[in-house]
Each structure stands twice: as C-alpha cells, then as structure tokens.
C-alpha cells in the first residue's frame, strides 16, 4: 500500500497485524499479572498519545486493581526526534506510595523514557517499571530498557496502532513500516 504524506509518496508495509498485537498484549499482561499479583493497586501511567491504544488494550487484560493516569511528552517532529523532550502535562500527584507502570508506544533513542524516569524519581512512587509496545535497540542512545516489551524492531519509522506521523495514522489497527516509495 502507498500513502501520500505532504506530497511524498510513501510505502506502508505491515510489520505486526492486529491479531499479532492482540496476542502479544495478552502475553505481556500475563507477565505483569505474575509480577504484581492481584492485591496491590497498580498505577498505569499511559504516555499520550502514542501509547493510548496499547495501554487501553493492555489494562483490560490486567487482573489487579488499577488506577489509570496519563502524561504527555513531546520529542518528535515528523519522522525525526528533535533531541529535546518536553513535559506537556505535569506528572499526576497520585503516584506517592504506589507501584507505577509506565506504558510507552516505542523506545527509540531512549531519550523520552530517560527523561520521564528522571521526572518520576522526583516522586515517592514505591516502584517504577516500563512497558513498551515496541523497542528499537539499534537506535538506543540512552541506557534505558523496558521491563516488558511487545516487539523488537529495526531502526525504521513505523506508524499505526497509536504510532503516528505528524499526528496522523494512529488509527491503523496494525503496525506498519513507512518508507519512501
């Protein structure tokens, strides 16, 4: 399939189907359920907008009581990282004394997660773990590693299932590689 992105023709190649994502999300949820049990409350901190769809699907498979919070950070313009991370919304004030699971769409350079972890260290959370739908190890520039990873991908630009290009294509039910035609 091809799409037009601001006058440039781009190829869209499906990497992970809707079924692949659903099945992997269930496996990750089982791991989280085993690690946290069913008694303690888990604060699920979804990084907007990219992780919203994944976070929603993941939370429906968790067995412990959950509190859902959101945070918005920004580090991309188009297909490239700006090199700067901005906290668009403040951290929730309800993290003190609780276990926090950050849900991210992708660990690319690691800059965003590194920034967010440093911000979370300023809270009094009991623990902080990272769950990322995608991990791109070849692109890592920061020593961060997600505790739970959906899929490992190559150093390509991807869209769909929450991941976007300038705010578009988040609604695709699959994850696709995007390359110039």
From TrEMBL:
Its EC number is 2.4.2.8. The keyword Hydrolase does not apply. It holds the Pfam family Pribosyltran. It is found in: Cytoplasm. SUPFAM superfamilies: PRTase-like. Keywords: Cytoplasm, Glycosyltransferase, Magnesium, Metal-binding, Nucleotide-binding, Purine salvage, Transferase. It catalyses: IMP + diphosphate = hypoxanthine + 5-phospho-alpha-D-ribose 1-diphosphate; GMP + diphosphate = guanine + 5-phospho-alpha-D-ribose 1-diphosphate. Signal peptide: none annotated. It is an enzyme of class 2 (transferase). GO terms for biological process: GMP salvage; guanine salvage; hypoxanthine metabolic process; IMP salvage; purine ribonucleoside salvage. One of its GO terms (molecular function) is magnesium ion binding. Residues 28-164 form the Phosphoribosyltransferase domain. Its cofactor is Mg(2+). Gene3D superfamilies: 3.40.50.2020. Pathway: Purine metabolism; IMP biosynthesis via salvage pathway; IMP from hypoxanthine: step 1/1. It comes from the Bacteria. One of its GO terms (cellular component) is cytosol. The keyword Coiled coil does not apply. Belongs to the purine/pyrimidine phosphoribosyltransferase family. This is Hypoxanthine phosphoribosyltransferase.
